[in-house]
Backbone:
DNA sequence: AATGCGTGGGG
DNA sequence: TCCCCAAGCAT
């Protein structure tokens, strides 16, 4: 067991802990949000909600949650679903490995747990895509097990309660907050205790613009009482996303269909369909070639590279589309679109390519950058 | 241990 | 408009 004193944290006595639990749970009983996944103890439903809620806000999740359970009512349905339907169910939510891992976990439940959702922390934590936070959340909410669910909210609230001088963004410090929570958690209502802290951290004790005077636990909060509230939690700034210049090729055949390509699995937006794209940070620049005893500078165009890689000879119709901007967690794209049309639409076989009519776009899983490109293209044709 | 992996909302 | 942030996990 980790010794909190070594981290400069003075734990409360039993009476204060009991008082804290009562104060927090009384507030939760009055103020808790009525959310779809709070009307059930079905571990499958709880699991779906917890995976969707990873790094994703409640308001965004609700419609996805309802539709997901409609499409995949049971673990078995999820285990047997085709990949395309999985991606459609998650389209627009982001972090798509979440849903791939969920399907693997559903298959683990069918194969290793006889189709029954595991009911111990240890077995729940064996499932793909379930880490310490999610294992704690499911254990406590669905099975009433006294397991902490340490997420960003809990770390923030705990850091303020005890003036924890350790960076909450550093994974190795997670164990400090885990140790605090193992002592504080109410063994009689562990699920409510965990969710109360999340509700509190989401709104009143949020990261930006918190309202500490409204917190039901302010008189337990060292940072509040000592006037150091603004100093906690300690969190080092993240790295900024890398700017990247991208070229997209909007190519149509004689039927007016668009060329789409399926992204390679295991990479960014793997399995989703997009207009062919190319990173152009390093091309479109001048290359030196050795020719006739001299070096000559030659500008290699993206279009030439496209023609070679896709074995197509489009007639290019340049028409200055507004660049599409899209920021991922780690990359910041500026996408320039170019348009072309082909008479001969025979496609190479070394890539997953197909011609698709605009009215059939919704049958293909498409991520947000592609949706933005389609909108920009259509808007330019209208205006 | 550090990095890859999305997206939408709020200031 | 741009920047920061949010109910993490896998490798």
Residues:
């Amino acid at each position: 067991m980790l010794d909190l004193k070594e981290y400069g944290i003075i734990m409360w006595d039993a009476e204060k802990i009991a008082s804290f639990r009562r104060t927090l749970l009384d507030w939760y009983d009055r103020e808790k949000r009525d959310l779809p996944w709070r009307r059930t103890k079905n571990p499958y439903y709880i699991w779906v909600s917890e995976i969707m809620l990873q790094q994703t806000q409640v308001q965004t999740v609700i419609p996805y949650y309802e539709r997901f359970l409609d499409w995949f009512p049971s673990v078995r349905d999820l285990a047997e679903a085709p990949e395309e339907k999985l991606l459609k169910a998650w389209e627009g939510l982001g972090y798509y490995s979440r849903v791939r891992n969920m399907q693997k976990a559903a298959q683990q439940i069918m194969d290793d747990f006889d189709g029954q959702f595991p009911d111990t922390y240890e077995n729940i934590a064996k499932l793909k895509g379930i880490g310490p936070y999610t294992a704690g959340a499911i254990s406590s909410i669905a099975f009433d097990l006294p397991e902490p669910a340490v997420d960003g909210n809990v770390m923030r609230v705990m850091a303020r309660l005890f003036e924890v001088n350790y960076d909450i963004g550093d994974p190795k410090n997670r164990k400090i907050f885990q140790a605090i929570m193992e002592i504080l958690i109410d063994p009689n209502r562990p699920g409510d205790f965990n969710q109360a802290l999340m509700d509190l951290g989401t709104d009143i004790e949020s990261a930006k613009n918190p309202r500490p005077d409204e917190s039901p636990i302010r008189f337990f909060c060292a940072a509040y009482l000592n006037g150091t509230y603004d100093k906690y939690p300690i969190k080092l700034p993240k790295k900024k996303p890398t700017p990247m210049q991208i070229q997209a090729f909007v190519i149509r055949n004689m039927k007016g269909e668009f060329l789409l390509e399926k992204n390679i699995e295991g990479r960014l937006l793997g399995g989703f369909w997009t207009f062919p794209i190319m990173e152009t940070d390093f091309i479109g620049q001048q290359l030196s070639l050795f020719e006739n005893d001299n070096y000559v500078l030659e500008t290699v165009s993206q279009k030439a590279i496209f023609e070679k890689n896709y074995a197509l000879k489009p007639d290019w119709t340049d028409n200055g589309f507004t660049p599409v901007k899209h920021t991922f967690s780690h990359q910041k794209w500026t996408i320039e679109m170019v348009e072309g049309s082909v008479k001969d639409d025979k496609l190479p076989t070394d890539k997953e390519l197909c011609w698709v009519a605009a009215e059939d776009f919704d049958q293909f899983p498409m991520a947000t950058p592609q949706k933005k490109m389609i909108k920009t293209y259509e808007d330019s044709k209208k205006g």
Notes: Residues 49-58, 61, 95, 97-98, 101, 128-134, 137, 149, 151-154, 195, 198, 201-202, 206-208, 237-238, 240, 327 of chain A lie near DNA strand C (CB under 10 Å from a C1'). Chain A has two domains: 4-231, 242-382. Confidence is low (pLDDT under 50) at residues 286-293 of chain A. The CA atoms of residues 146 and 187 of chain A lie 5 Å apart.
